[in-house]
Amino acid sequence: MTLLIIGALFLLLFFLAAAWAAARRPGQTTGAILLLLLVHELLIRWLQNLAGLPQAEVTLVSLWKDVALAGLLVGTVFKSWQIDRDLRSRLVWRPGEPFLAAFAALGILGVVLSPDRLAGVAAYRDYFEPVVFYVVIRLTTIERKQLSRLLKAWLIVGAAMAVLAIWQSGWTTAQFAAWGFGTPSGQVGIPIGGVIGKAGLRPPSTVTGPNELAGHMILMACAAFLLIFESSGRKRTLFVVAAVLYGGALVASASRSGFLGLLLGLAVATAFAVIRKRQDVGRLGRRAWIGLGGALAVMALMAVIVAVSGMGSLIGHTIQSLAGQYHTLDTLGAVNFLVQHPQGVGMGLVGPRQGFGFPAVAAFHVEGSYFQMAMEFGVWGLAIFLVFLFLALRQTWREGMRASPPTLRVLSGVSVAGWLGVSVTFLFLPLMQAFPLMAWLWFALGIGLQARRLDLDDQAESVGHSQS
User: If residue 351 lies in a helix (H) or strand (E), which one and from where to where?
Assistant: First the structure.
């Protein structure tokens, strides 16, 4: 009882601190939480395996992210109300948002109708808790300097994640245990696997497992790719190295869908950058051609890594045996079920899922996030979400094309390329349950969807400062 009281007081103080910080500096608070999420799982592993804390205490500490998110939302709403008391200018529908609202409402109905309402609430939280980052960005203005610092910090943390993942790809079971990751197994996010000829333990880096790591590397590689076009000189070379590093970490993760998602993401990022550069001057200038050369250099180096590592052989073997692959059979089983039962099985009743509220045995098992969504929201729920995503990404593309600050252009491009790239993994893996990954995806979408407004707000604030 004493532990619970102390834990509750700690969480209350954390909530108040987050709300106070968000009310003063919403942009910095959002960025700090997003960066901390990237090392959240590592902290939990160390508390369990190195500090030896009881599970109850570890669970209390793990709730920091939920409490911080609640404080962030409350503080941001208060800040926005101070700036614009009726909030009308910030609550105008953006393209696709009526569909997002309909999707959220359908989820609430699904919770009410679910045979297991506690599981329904837990599943609803999985889907919509990361959307708070999108809402926060919609309600506030983040200055260009703040976004630029966050982008740099994100890529630096990502580089550390990538280096750790590449190092871990050669670790033994004893090394994982010695460094506080526990005894490797699929249950703790360190499965046995690897590329052809180099099977071993797949690295989780600082997140829940190799597949989530692959999702983060897709986003970061797309960002580095776009920055190649926006930079010059040594900075461009630095981003070429960073893009190769992120791609190398993804290869080390041995995530096949992640690798395919990376290829799609980089292709979209290249198209975005080239079209944007051509739009500026009506043709591709010298800087754009150099940027394209840098992007091709990344592709060439990545091809070498893929060939040497055995990832190419792994992808080839997967294609040759596609009909018998586990994920193929898993997906086909879900499609066949949905054809006969388009309403799905109910909110919270689809596995694989772990954690408080979920049943020990799911009513249906499918790993692809989009198919999980169809099972829980019905086929029409998945259709509504995909319509929202299409409209939002189309507008994000347009906003990014019109934005003038490089940071906004890069984040807009990351939003489109990242969502499309990671969507490849959503077809086969339950990565929508990975809170840090979804938090960054929703944050990028929120930035990209209103890049033009953020640009104008920043210009107006700059004019106000100069006049004063």
Answer: strand 350-351
Which residue from 207, 194, 211 is spatially nearest to 254, judged by alpha carbons?
A: 194
Q: What is the DSSP string of 189-237?
A: T--EE-STT--EEPP-TTSS-HHHHHHHHHHHHHHHHHHHHH--HHHHH
Mean pLDDT of the chain: 86
What is d(CA 153, CA 143) in angstroms, rounded to the nearest whole number?
Answer: 16
Please tell me the predicted confidence (pLDDT) of residue 467: 46
Tell me the torsion sign for CA atoms 382, 388, 394, 400. negative
Longest CA–CA separation in the chain, Å: 69
> In this model, does residue 41 exceed pLDDT 50?
yes
Interatomic CA distance for residues 96 and 91, integer angstroms: 13
Structure tokens at 81: 């109300």
What one-character-per-residue DSSP string does 46-75 give?
A: HHHHTS---HHHHHHHHTHHHHHHHHHHHH
Q: Mean of the pLDDT values across residues 315-337?
A: 82
Residue 465's pLDDT band, with cuts at 50, 70 and 90, is very low
Residues 121/359, Cβ–Cβ less than 8 Å: no
The confidence score (pLDDT) of residue 238 equals 92
Q: Residue 33's Cα: distance from chain center in Å?
A: 13
Tell which residue, 332, 132, 171, 338, has the closest CA to residue 252: 171
Within 8 A by CB and 6+ apart from 221, the residues are 243, 246, 247, 250, 262, 265, 266
Closest by CA position to 56, among listed 15, 109, 1, 110? 1
Q: Closest Cα to residue 223, out of 285, 276, 135, 295?
A: 295
Q: Is 84 helix (H, G, I), strand (E, B) or coil?
A: coil
- Residue 465 has a CB neighbour count (10 Å cut-off) of 8
Q: What is the pLDDT of residues 275-296, one digit of tens each?
A: 877 655 555 556 666 666 777 7
Instruction: State pTM to two decimals.
Output: 0.91
The structure tokens listed for 127 are 């889907």
Q: What is the mean pLDDT of residues 75-83?
A: 77
Beta bridge partners of 365: 351
In this structure, the chain runs to a length of 468
Residue 31: is its pLDDT beyond 90?
Answer: yes
